[in-house]
Design goal:
With 77 residues, this protein is α+β, with helices and mostly antiparallel strands. The protein is built from two helices and seven strands, in the order βαββαββββ. It has helices at 13-20, 37-45; strands spanning 7-10, 25-26, 35-36, 52-55, 60-61, 68-69, 74-76. The strands form three sheets. The protein has a three-stranded antiparallel sheet. Strands 1-4 form a two-stranded parallel ribbon. A two-stranded antiparallel sheet has the order 5-6. Strand 5 (60-61) and strand 6 form a beta hairpin. The protein starts with 6 loop residues before the first strand and ends with a strand.
Amino acid sequence: MAGITVELIAVSRETLLRAESHIHGCEACSRSAGLPFSWILDRVTDRNPAITDYVLPRPARCGRCGESVFEKTLVDW
């Protein structure tokens, strides 16, 4: 049985800033937050979400409330 290969991507500070700019709210401040932050990272990096995991240089920040945002944190796009 073959294992699934996972691509581990080290996110640059510039890419993190681009992804952060798409956060309109997070699960701490928005009832409509429903997408994991990794979804935004997938779009910004043009990676396959089925096989990609990310390493952030620091937690992202919600532009609305300032809370820390991690890959699995739910956000508004």
